[in-house]
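User: I'm designing a mutation panel for DUF1611 domain-containing protein and want to avoid disrupting the core. Could you give me a predicted structure to guide residue selection? Please restate the sequence first so the numbering is unambiguous.

Assistant: Good idea. Sequence first, for numbering, then the predicted structure tokens:
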Amino acid sequence: MATVKKTALIYCENQFGLMDGKTAAGLVRHSETYTIVGVIDSSLAGKDAGEELDDKRNYIPIFANLDEALEQLPKIPSCYIYGKAPLDARISIPERLLILEAMEKGMDIINGLHEFFSEDREFIEMAAQCGIQIKDIRKPPNLKDLHVFTGQISKVNVPVIAILGTDCACGKMTTAVELNQTLNNLGIKSIMVATGQTSLMQGSMYGVAMDALISQFVIGEIENSVIQSFENESPDIILVEGQSAVSHPAFMSSIGILKGSMPDGIILQHPPGRKFRCDFPHLAMPNVESEIKLIEAISQSTVMAITLSHENLTDEEILKVIKDYETRLKLPTTDVLTHGCQKLVQILGKHFPKLAQKIKLGNLEKIPVLATR
């Protein structure tokens, strides 16, 4: 029985298509939970969300404000999603007033920040008056439900692939979602384990917002999510969404993913047009080679392929980067949003023969791919 999606309006003022608007972007591109009916960002009002992100119209309008959205939409959406992911993770006074207004209109509130709306007295009172619900995606499980590492990950006998990156907000989740969909379309049962708030909002059945966990339980929660997906779904492959970067001085997330999931292979996402770390303008970006060395030095796995973010680059520049990486590093390289997942599927089949046997070869040829000559 198909799940009925709730309609949702996403708030992303002045950030849609930018780094701190990654939650909104992820939901506009893909959601199994919500039907996105609009985005609020006055700097892009009147435009199409799909065209702003990927130059492909998806008929999701961008509105100047909440009033305009509710005037133009045929009915009030079921949910109001706070779609920004700022480093300080706090809402402003104007944003607070908009959330209260959305509640008054009867919209449930979906929040991905570390600031929990369901523990805010004013929000609690308004939610009760309006008969709506508040859902804090990053709220960690109760202590009794948390897991420490057990070593039971060793019983997972299907490939586990981690999609790591060289920085935050560089496309790891997008690549994981695209690859997961492609594999399933080819007859491979692929399960994606979420590790962040956006992919959980999108509808991932397994995973946890790991940056909200007490450090003692991070590795165990990742291990448990992989084990649960393996035991409950009997998949052919498990993809684990990455967070931040192993080399990033501000975050430990990727190390927890490497330890907890013990991946059989790694796909590395990189934004070659980015000069400085996301939200850290004084920290220069690492290069792909240094990140690969670091990942392979602290894990028992190897980097199998490189995927790219095309931010700040033209199509011609991306093609040059692809050719350069494949020549120098001898690793298949692609931008999945532009060129598809064919190279990734091929390298997975090469490394894991059981997967290759299950791929519907006729369908493989239909996956978009652009020659890199």
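For picking mutation sites, this is relevant: Residues 215-233 form the longest helix (19 residues). Residues 368-373 have pLDDT under 50 and may be disordered.
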